[in-house]
């Protein structure tokens, strides 16, 4: 018994999520179909019973019309006891003579009642054949309200089961996403932790080289190495902050973008030019500087790949209003088909033979998840290039910058 509980405790629903999804689906279908079958069986039995009641009602009326003596039992026990099945007695010309269990709208006139009876009569004719009392008198009827409600009950129940199944499916998918997020957050934090030691060592070596006799003749190389180490420090900080809420504050957009492309220029093909334009150099927006630089780097690197290491990247910064700042990043690459505009942000989407396809996914997560902004393909033409637009929240008052 103890072993069984251990086996049950070791059951990993996430590992077997596909089987669980199919089990939930099959379970829901079986319950739904079983419910429909069982309810329909009950409905058919009730239909037969109500048919017998109407037949008995018709025979009682026929008996009452022939035998006028001692009708108390027939009237009270048979005719009056029909309190649920709507019936209408009509003559040979189809005009209603009597009716029972028909509910009319309140304050109805005689003409409205007659029209209502005729409408009810048409619906009854579509359901069942009439019962003949004589050559010129017929009884029409339809299902009682209880039977009608019972007919729709299994479909309501099936809808509830389907909703339950969809919610369970969504819950499993959400659990999957949450589990993946926790896994990636844990891996990135551990990676950042592991990078900390060699980075500290590299920074110490750079300080050593700065104070060594070889610094003057290798100054440019040592300074570039220092930039890369500083960049690795920033990347490590980014990874260590994944899973936590970043600090968003007013930053100079022109300066942040400028710093990002100044770092990129010597590290990409010299056949790719990067041009930064802005109608002002003091445009501010709410952002996390480190994460936003990451976005600019990812989009620019994707652009370099799209241009196969040769072309031009143009970045335009526009303060559209007091509320929004636009950053348009255009390239002269191969372009994107219109139907792929949204798919380029999906995880794993890539046109390269090598790569994870996470650059634009990460950019979208940073801009829309952390900055409450937007990023999308603003325009693209095959063979001519693509333009991405980033929308950030601008800073209204200068006091917010200080």
TrEMBL record:
Gene Ontology molecular function, alphabetical: ATP binding; protein histidine kinase activity
Top-level taxon in the UniProt lineage: Bacteria
Q: Which reaction does it catalyse?
A: ATP + protein L-histidine = ADP + protein N-phospho-L-histidine
The kind of enzyme this is, by top-level EC class, is transferase
Q: Where is the chain membrane-spanning?
A: 20-38, 152-172
> Does the keyword Calcium feature in the UniProt annotation?
no
Q: Transport: is it a keyword of this entry?
A: no
Q: Which residues form the Histidine kinase domain?
A: 190-396
Note the InterPro entries from the entry: HATPase_C_sf (IPR036890), HATPase_dom (IPR003594), His_kinase_dom (IPR005467), Sig_transdc_His_kin-like_C (IPR004358)
Which GO terms fall under biological process for this protein? phosphorelay signal transduction system
Q: Supply the SMART domains for this chain.
A: HATPase_c
Alphabetical UniProt keywords:
ATP-binding, Kinase, Membrane, Nucleotide-binding, Transferase, Transmembrane, Transmembrane helix, Two-component regulatory system
Q: What is its EC number?
A: 2.7.13.3
What's a Pfam family in this record?
HATPase_c
- What is this protein identified as? histidine kinase
Which organism is the protein's source? Cyclobacterium marinum (strain ATCC 25205 / DSM 745 / LMG 13164 / NCIMB 1802) (Flectobacillus marinus)
């Amino acid at each position: 018994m103890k072993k069984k509980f251990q086996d049950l405790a070791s059951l990993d629903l996430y590992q077997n999520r596909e089987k669980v999804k199919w089990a939930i689906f099959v379970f829901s279908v079986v319950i739904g179909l079983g419910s429909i079958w069982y309810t329909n069986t009950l409905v058919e039995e009730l239909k037969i019973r109500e048919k017998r009641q109407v037949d008995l009602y018709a025979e009682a009326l026929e008996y009452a019309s022939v035998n006028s003596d001692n009708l108390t039992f027939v009237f009270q026990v048979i005719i009056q006891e029909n309190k649920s099945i709507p019936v209408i007695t009509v003559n040979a010309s189809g005009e209603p003579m009597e009716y029972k269990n028909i509910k009319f709208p309140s304050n109805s006139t005689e003409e409205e009642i007659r029209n209502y009876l005729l409408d009810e009569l048409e619906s009854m004719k579509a359901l069942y054949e009439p019962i003949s009392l004589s050559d010129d008198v017929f009884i029409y009827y339809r299902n009682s309200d209880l039977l009608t409600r019972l007919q729709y009950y299994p479909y309501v129940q099936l809808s509830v089961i389907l909703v339950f199944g969809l919610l369970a499916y969504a819950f499993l998918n959400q659990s999957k996403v949450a589990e993946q997020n926790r896994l990636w957050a844990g891996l990135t934090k551990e990676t950042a932790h592991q990078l900390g030691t060699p980075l500290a060592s590299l920074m110490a070596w750079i300080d050593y080289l700065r104070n060594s006799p070889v610094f003057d003749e290798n100054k440019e190389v040592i300074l570039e190495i220092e930039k890369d180490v500083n960049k690795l420090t920033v990347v490590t900080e980014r990874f260590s902050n994944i899973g936590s809420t970043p600090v968003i504050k007013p930053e100079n957009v022109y300066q942040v973008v400028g710093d990002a492309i100044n770092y990129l220029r010597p590290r990409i093909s010299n056949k790719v030019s990067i041009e930064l334009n802005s109608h002002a150099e003091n445009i501010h927006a709410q952002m996390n500087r480190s994460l936003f630089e990451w976005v600019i780097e990812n989009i620019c690197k994707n652009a370099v790949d799209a241009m196969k290491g040769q072309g031009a990247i143009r970045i335009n910064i526009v303060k559209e209003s007091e509320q929004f700042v636009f950053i348009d990043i255009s390239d002269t690459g191969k372009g994107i088909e219109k139907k792929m505009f949204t798919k380029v942000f999906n995880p794993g989407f890539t046109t390269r033979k090598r790569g994870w396809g996470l650059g634009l996914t990460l950019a979208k997560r940073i801009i829309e998840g952390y900055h409450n902004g937007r990023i999308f393909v603003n325009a693209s033409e095959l063979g001519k290039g693509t333009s991405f637009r980033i929308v950030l929240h601008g800073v209204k008052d200068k006091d917010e910058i200080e």
